Amino acid sequence: MINADLQQISLQLESENSRDRLLALASLREVSAEEAVPLIKKVLDDEILQVRSMAVFALGVKQTDECYPILVKLLESDPDYGIRADAAGALGYLEDPRAYEPLSRAFYEDTQWLVRFSAAVSLGNLGDIRAKNLLLQALDSKETVMHQAAIAAIGEIKAVDAIDDILRFANSEDWLVRQRLAQALGNFNTEKSIAALKFLGKDSQPQVREAALFSLNLLQTNS
């Protein structure tokens, strides 16, 4: 992008109108990571939460060496739990294996379920098998959304020895949990997972049936 355009975005990020700042962040989609990150940093402490949230997300998409330490600091010390959750999510986008430790700490130590949920999702994005025990604990959470995140993540890290632990959700009252289960089972080409997918393929909810049939087709294609 030419310097004149970058200058315009930079000025827009300093606008008193929060809508201008949001539009400026959105326009960084077309800007290289090296050029975008210095501009994103200008609004990381913005007074408007929506602007901050969008900036944190942008650091997960526009990846430079600077992004990881900034996001870890936000995850570990920002007073707003929404921003901590955003930082956890952005770390998942980075797919940096170093993020396993701070994300695990956030899961165990943060008192807000939204942060713990984002950490669980991102641990799945990392595909790190070390997250298995943590994710198994998440299955015992009181929050149904945590079950969704943990089941999906167990599929992503391909923890085949955890199949029995997630299969207990095949009759969950929440169809989104059953859908996540159907999607996760597509990562495991075993007799148990195939039998469970055939069962879910007859689910009363069409989204669950579609997910189960997709996973079955995926397993057949890859076998």
From TrEMBL:
Gene3D superfamilies: Leucine-rich Repeat Variant. InterPro entries: ARM-like, ARM-type_fold, PBS_lyase_HEAT. One of its GO terms (cellular component) is phycobilisome. Keywords: Antenna complex, Phycobilisome. Pfam families: HEAT_2 (PF13646). It comes from the Bacteria. This is HEAT:PBS lyase HEAT-like repeat.
